[in-house]
Amino acid sequence: MTPLNKAIGIGLALLAALGLAAWIWVAQPCDRSASASQVLVEIPQGSSVSDIAEILRNERLVRGRGAFVVAALLSGTYGKFQAGWYELSQASSPVEIAHKIARGEVAQIKVTIPEGANLRQIACTLEEAKVCGADEFIAAAVPATVTNRVTTFTIPAETLEGYLFPDTYFFALGSPAERVVAAMVDRLEDVFLDFVSVGPPAMLGSLDAVVTLASLVEGEAKWDDERALIAGVLANRLKTGMRLQCDATVQYALGEHKPRLTYEDLKVESPYNTYLRPGLPPGPICSPGLASLKAALHPEPTDYLYYVAKPDGHHIFSRTYEEHKAAIAKIRGQR
Questions:
Q1: Considering the domain boundaries, does residue 219 fall inside one?
Q2: Where are the beta strands (DSSP E) in 117-230?
Q3: What stretches of the chain adopt beta strand conformation (E)?
C-alpha cells in the first residue's frame, strides 16, 4: 500500500469514527435517569434552528446547542421544524426530539367547557389551557368564521355567543383560534341534529330562537328536572306577550354575575334586559347544554306563568301574580 493510499485510509477511518461519535452524541438522551421529566416547550413562529437549540438547552432537553444542530443535519430535519407547543422528554435523544418537532407532533390538552359558560369565560378557559389567546378567540367567534360550515342555524347575532357547544375537547396547544371556534360550532350542529326530529315550537319560529331560549333556561335552571318546566313558563310568557323577566339576562347585560340583583340592576339599559324589553333577547346569553337545548325544543306543557328560586336552586312555580308574591314572601322568610 502506498503512503498516499494509507493516508487516505486513515483519513476515511477517522471520518467514519468522527461520524459515528457524532451520531452516538446526538442519539443519546440528555437524561437517562428514572427522574427524567416531561417538559412543555413552546417553539415560536419563525424560530431558527439555533433558536430552537437554545430553547431545548435551557430546558435540559439537549446537552448543548451543537448536539441539536448536528442532530437536525444528520436526521434530515434541518429547516423543517414547525412552531407550536411540544411535550418533550428529557429521556429522548436530540434526534428523536428533532423528528417530533419536524413532524409537528404538537401537544394536546383536554379542555372542558362547562354548560352555561359565556363567550368571555370560554375564551379565558382556553387561554389558561394555552390552546389559544382569549382576545384571538373572541375576535374569531363571529358568524363570518363559520358561515360556510353552518347549515342548521342562521346565527343572527354579531357573535357566536351560545353556539359554542359546552363539552370536553382535545385541542392542540397553540391552535389557531378559528379552528377552535369551528370545532365547537360543528359540535353544536352534530349534537342538535342527533335529536332534532321536528321543527321548533311555533312561538319560537326558528332553531336560532331555540338556542336563545335554551341559553335562558341554562341561566335560570340549576336542576335538570326543572329545565323543561322553566322552558314551558317562558314559552307561556312569550305566547301571552308578557315580558320574560329573566334574571339571567340582566346578569348578562350587566357583564358580571351578582349574588343578588337590585331593583336598580333591573333597570339597566340593554337589548338583553328582558325586564324592559319584550320577547327573546337578540341572541343567546351563554352556551346551553344538551338538557337545556332539549327543554327549549320541547317545553313542558303547563299553565304556570311565574317562578322564583329557592335557596337550594329549585323553584316555586305559580299560576297567578298573587301566588307568585306569596312564594317570594315565603322564600324571603327562609333566607
A1: yes
A2: 168-172
A3: 38-43, 84-89, 108-112, 168-172, 306-309, 315-318
What string of DSSP letters covers 30-98?
Answer: S--STT--EEEEEE-TT--HHHHHHHHHHTTSSS-HHHHHHHHHHHT-TT----EEEEEETTS-HHHHH
Grid look-up 430552537 returns 52
Q: Decide if 131 is inside a domain.
A: yes
Question: Within a domain: residue 243?
Answer: yes
pLDDT of amino acid 26: 55
Compute the CA torsion angle 176, 125, 196, 244 (nearest 10 deg).
-130
Q: Which pTM does this prediction carry? A: 0.79
| pLDDT, tens digit, 9 for 90 and up, residues 124-146 | 999 999 999 999 999 999 999 98
Is the dihedral angle over the CA atoms 304, 305, 310, 313 positive or is it negative?
A: positive
CATH of the domain at 178: 3.30.1490
Q: Of 284, 307, 291, 48, which Cα lies nearest the Cα of 155?
A: 284
Regarding whether 64 and 114 lie in a shared domain, the answer is no
Give pLDDT, residue 202.
62
In sequence order, which residues have a C-beta less than 8 Å from that of residue 128 and are 6 or more positions away?
Answer: none
Residue with cell 429522548: 92
Q: Would the CA dihedral through 117, 123, 128, 131 be positive or negative?
A: positive
Q: Which three cell numbers stand for residue 84?
A: 407550536
Reported as half-sphere exposure (CB side, CA atoms, 13 A), residue 293 has a value of: 24
In single-letter form, the type of residue at position 110 comes to K
Tell me: the pLDDT tens digits for 173-196? 989 999 999 999 999 988 887 777
Give dist(CA 250, CA 162) in Å, integer: 16
Residues of the chain with pLDDT under 70: 1-36, 197-203, 205, 334-335
The C-alpha cell at 69 is: 444542530
Model confidence over 83-102: pLDDT tens digits?
989 999 888 888 899 999 99
Q: Return all residues near 70 (Cβ < 8 A) that are at least 6 apart.
A: 22, 25, 26, 94
**85 in a structural domain:** yes
The boundaries of the domain holding residue 122 are: 108-195
